[in-house]
Amino acid sequence: MTDISSILHQDQEEEKARCEWDFHLSTIISSCNSLSGSGCDTIGVLEFDPCGNFLASGGIARKIRIYAVKSLLQEGEEGERRTSTGAPLSLDHGNACDFFMCTPARLGSLKWKPGLGSRVLGSGDYDGVVMEYDLEKKMPVFERDEHGGRRVWSIDYCHSDPFLGASGSDDGTMQMWDPRCGDNGKCLAMVQPTKEYSTPVCCVEFNPFKGPIVAVGCADRRVYAYDMRKMVDPLFILDGHQKAVTYIRFIDERTIISSSIDGCLKMWNAEDQKVLRTYKGHNNSRRFVGLSVWKPGGLICCGSESNQVFVYDKRWGEPIWVYGREPIGLTGHDHGFVSSVCWQQKDENQCTLVAGDSDGVLRVFNGKKR
């Protein structure tokens, strides 16, 4: 006798992906460097603050730019957002951002510190340095340099104790630190997931929902999850990608989304370490192209080396919406890739998505549920 659950699962898999959202391009933010195609302003990371009122960007240009979200949303004279039939608003970075701060090195990661509104922003750079910036004072207030000068790819903060941070680096380690401990953020714990040889740690993510769990994605193709209270051996290992794991995101307390340069995303059940679904369609074989999960709507977004933005619904392995490259005539060249994406975590029936590319162009998309 055939198991009923297996039949239901098969029916789910056979159901075709459908888009229940209307997305449109609202705003394009660029600069003279963007138009020249020089690639010197690649946007490597985008982060909305916890309240969704500000957006921070960083990358090759050695600048942290802070944008008020209202300035990025296309509005008419009466303050009402234009319809999807209106032409996109075109802005320059210099006019669109509220302010910027110069950084000592190229940035690999940005993360807003929880519990402090929109005041403190952490960064990890290509020189192996972690810094925190007070945005009211517009100056750095904390610095640690414990990764031996090796590039920091990712930082994150613990939601239950926002002072506790973690950073993952090319030196093969994930380090946890706390500025309150002195000694330039004393290392409270350190793990080297691949103990036999030093494999870069590409991403770090605390579970924001429940429990003292921190997950680490490595160039050895695996995701390692640790209990912060006893970080000797991993609680579990997710093994299924064919190449380096570049991003990790928790979609809920027991479900993890991972991205890899094997060209796919995977959704995992953290309790039994099984793959629930694999998402394919985007092109990713070499670079970091971004990953963001919009939790209220169950949507996943990533960039692509085809210079496109891909949106997946967590229910289906095929993309539900793809935004293609601009016509060659607008940019004057035919290359580049989408290097970062970020959802604003707000309303369940409408959403805002921002994508940055290798030419330093930001695109803001608005979406409404049909």
Characterise this structure:
There is one protein chain. This protein is mainly beta. It has 5 helices and 29 strands. The strands form 7 sheets. A 5-stranded mixed β-sheet has the order 5-1-29-28-27. Strands 2-3-4-6 form a 4-stranded antiparallel β-sheet. The chain has a 4-stranded antiparallel β-sheet with strand order 7-8-9-10, with no helix packed on it. A hairpin with a 4-residue loop joins strand 23 and strand 24 (299-302). The longest helix has 11 residues, at 4-14. It is globular, with a radius of gyration of 20 Å. The N and C termini lie far apart (40 Å). 47% of the residues are buried. The model is unreliable at 1-8, 76-84 and 326-332 (pLDDT under 50). Keywords: Cytoplasm, Flowering, Nucleus, Repeat, WD repeat. Its main location: cytoplasm. WD repeats lie at residues 238-278.
Number of helices: 5
Into which percent range does the helicity of residues fall?
under 10%
- Secondary structure class reads mainly beta
Low-confidence stretches: 1-8, 76-84, 326-332
- Terminus-to-terminus distance: 40 Å
Portion of residues in beta strands equals over 45%
Mean pLDDT: 88
The coarse silhouette is: globular
Give the biggest sheet. Answer: 5 strands, mixed
Provide the spatial order of strands within the biggest beta sheet.
5-1-29-28-27
Q: Which radius of gyration do the C-alpha atoms yield?
A: 20 Å
| Total strand segments | 29
